[in-house]
Amino acid sequence: MADAATEISPELDLARYQITALRAYAVAALAILLWDYATTVHLEYRRIWKAPWSIVKVLFFITRYSAIACVTIIVFGFHYQYLSDTQCQTYAKMEPVLCVITVASTEAILLIRVWALWGKKIYVLIPLLFCLIVEAAIMFAAAALYVPVEFKPGLGKLEQGCISTGVHPLTTAYWIVPLIFDAIVVVMTVTKLAMNRNGSRSKIAKVFLRDGLMYFSVIFGINLINTVVYLVTPENIKAANSTLAIALTAIMGCRLVLSLRALDDTSGGSSTSRDRSNSRGPGPVVTIGGTNRRGNVSQPQTTTFGSYKMNEFSTDFVGTLADVNEEQLNHHGQGSYNTEDKDDESLYRSEQPRNAFNPFDPVKIQVQHQTEHHVS
To answer: Which parts of the chain span the membrane according to its record (predicted)?
Structure first.
């Protein structure tokens, strides 16, 4: 009897150690997520809450708050020890389903970003959208196969809590399909960056591309590590890295949007500066659905696709802003622009004549382009 107890004891100790490690890892992921939220909530208010409603704004909120809910529920399951077997079965499927929402919304942000980089071409949008739909469908199907972790006999339910994991071979697809989508996004971004290396000398355009590549690569790396951990670890700790992966993926997706909105502020000025400029007279002509009319500077300058400024919906008269280089803008305009040593509101307003050419004015770009074409 003593020998049997001695034989089981190391296994129980290992199980207790694994549970403790999983709990600590989950709490750390939640702490990172909440720290990121606390340090960026002021940016969220200024750049997201105060911005007009758009698909990216909706996706930002879904990603941001579904991630907090998902990771919080995971931590709750790890520590709450009084769920019945039926409740634990339900929880084991609910938790990965909620995480699918976080992952899918983040991937949708990446999709829109890549679509904008490629000039909002329909032949880019349709395949990416198809891949995203297939990814979400596979992840939801795999989530239905998740079950509670079964630790060694003798551990006791009060010690192990309720931890969700996938033991069915098909549950591996839960983490592989996001990895494939991220790889496609990274390849498309690298390709676009290579195509614009010599075609555009605008510093903003290069930062626009490199910034996206950095975020995409980080998300790809996170999912790659998580997939490897899922494939090589024992069943009871397969999900060890998934909580952190969910948290970091959501953080990167949200920071990508905030970063693009920061670039938007830099290129077009903040809303405060636009409101101040309204007192200097009528706003520029804006193009809405192909019809020119007088607009108000405090209102968004839009096209059919959304905001015309340097953000996730950026386009110009022939493609993305990456296709408009500094030489072209200086050739068409009355003044030049310098992206160095300038920040936010002063970027295009200081040291420029009142009527100086603004390279991010969609109508002036369009009028100059049409005039040149007509004369030729």
So the answer is: 20-38, 58-82, 94-115, 122-147, 173-191, 212-233
pLDDT digits (tens, 9 = 90+) for 204-213: 566 666 667 7
Has residue 5 been placed in a domain?
A: no
Q: Which residue has the higher pLDDT, 59 or 231?
A: 59
CA distance 68 to 78: 16
Domain boundaries, position 123 = 12-267
Alpha carbon 221 to its chain centroid, in Å, reads 14
Residue 299: the pLDDT is 40
**Is-contact 154 8, C-beta < 8 A?**
yes
CATH number at residue 161: 1.20.1070
Q: Is residue 262 part of a domain?
A: yes
- Rounded Cα–Cα distance for residues 324 and 340 (Å): 17
> Is residue 305's pLDDT more than 50?
no
DSSP E strand boundaries for 7-99: none
How many Å apart are CA 187 and CA 83, to the nearest integer?
45
* CA 305 distance to own-chain centroid: 19
Query: 127 lies in a domain?
Result: yes
Task: Please check whether residue 19 lies inside any domain of the structure.
Answer: yes
Report the 10 Å Cβ neighbour count for 286.
Answer: 21
